[in-house]
Amino acid sequence: MFKRLCVAIAISCAPIIHAHETPSLEELWSLIQEQKAEIEELKTQLNENNASIQETRVVALSVADAVESNPSNTSVSSSWAEKTSIGGYGEHHYNVVDQGRDQIDAHRFVLYAGHEYSDRVRFFSELEIEHSLAGDGKPGEVELEQAFVEYQYAQNHNIKIGQYLIPVGILNEIHEPDTFYGVERNKVESEIIPSTWWESGVMLSGRINQTLTYDFAVHSGLNLSDDSAAIDTLRIRSGRQKSAEANANNLAYTGRIKATPLPGLELSATLQYQTDMLQSMVSGDTAEALLYEAHAIYQGEKLGLRAMYAGWDIDNLQFETVNSDDPTGWYIEPSWMLNKNWGVFARYSEVDPSRGDRPTQKTEQIDVGFNYWLTPQVVLKADYQDSREDGSDAFNLGVGWSF
Is the separation of the CB atoms in 241 and 223 below 8 Å? Predict the structure, then answer.
């Protein structure tokens, strides 16, 4: 091997040698020794590099094994993505109203965002745009409906702190369009409850046993002090403060019990007490109020049934003078699933606002229609409304989705 290397070096050096005087044997031997030393040095460096590469490979494999065996060492971005969720819903409506203006409306567009900090601490939020455009002179609003932290302080028991939906009625908490019949929400839960209704405060929720749950909340209340038409209780929804620099002189207290004694059956009752709906600072000029609501929901394989009763008892001389101190409402809604896509329904609702300008007149309405679910979370809707109050009718079409 060494002899072959010497010959190769000698040949490669031949042009150089030939171009000059012929070197002596001593000079040739010296040149060969220099080339041999350089080769040995290169071999030593190569061996050192190979050893360094092998050490780096071992360290990299060890780090990879450590990361895979310990989930807490995953990257921040990967962990954040796995624990953060988004969702939302929306609905578009087409309304044809007798004696009114036909319209197309991008009624709601809602986005959810949530994050799970740990097995016991979570965050949830809900941001909504109503009627497509918001701002001065525009028909819509941009609203923060929910933003709360939930902490599981014991097994099956949680506390919410922040802005949340009030636990009352059927639609106030679950109102995605693919979960209910009818293009528009029913009158009882729009005018008596009034949905969608959220406040800020603290709420305890939990499960007592396999069939019984509870909610108890302390939160900001209604404020009718700035509305000259407050005694018209059909405008009671104007008292919602929406957690926008809400007056908190008089808080409200809401409690609910919900039972599921049989598969597909839900029974629920809610009471809310507020010391003063007027948020008054003047002694004696107050409107103490009690809201009560009860409902039943049954959903079988084909047959569905919803029924609800709700009302207010307002203790205030001004309200009592014009007979608007005890508005009530109720409805019953049977439905039938023809197959996994088609469902039909009928609803009879009655609202008694006890208003001063028409103290004995009730608002009665009959709704009939159908839902067609393209998928379980995308629905097409159509219904016909017959209002007995003024004889006006309406035909509605809608599309809704959630994700």
Answer: yes
- Round to whole Å and give the CA distance between 190 and 180: 14
Say if strands 393-402 and 212-219 run parallel, antiparallel, or are unpaired. Answer: unpaired
Per-10-residue mean pLDDT, the chain, length 403: 46 45 70 74 69 62 58 62 95 90 95 97 97 92 97 97 98 97 95 94 97 98 72 73 93 98 97 92 80 98 98 89 87 98 97 63 90 98 87 90 98
**What is the C-alpha to C-alpha distance for residues 303 and 118, in angstroms, rounded to an integer?**
40
Regarding the domain delimited by 91-402, which CATH topology (the fold level of the hierarchy) does it fall under? Porin (2.40.160)
End-to-end CA distance of the chain: 75
pLDDT score at 58: 61
Domain boundaries, the chain: 2-69, 91-402
Write down the pLDDT at residue 69.
58
CA angle 39, 42, 48 (to 5 degrees): 145
Residue environment code for 200-228, b if the CB has 16+ CB neighbours within 10 A, otherwise e = bbebebbeeeeeebebebebbbbbbbeee
Q: Model-level pTM greater than 0.70?
A: yes
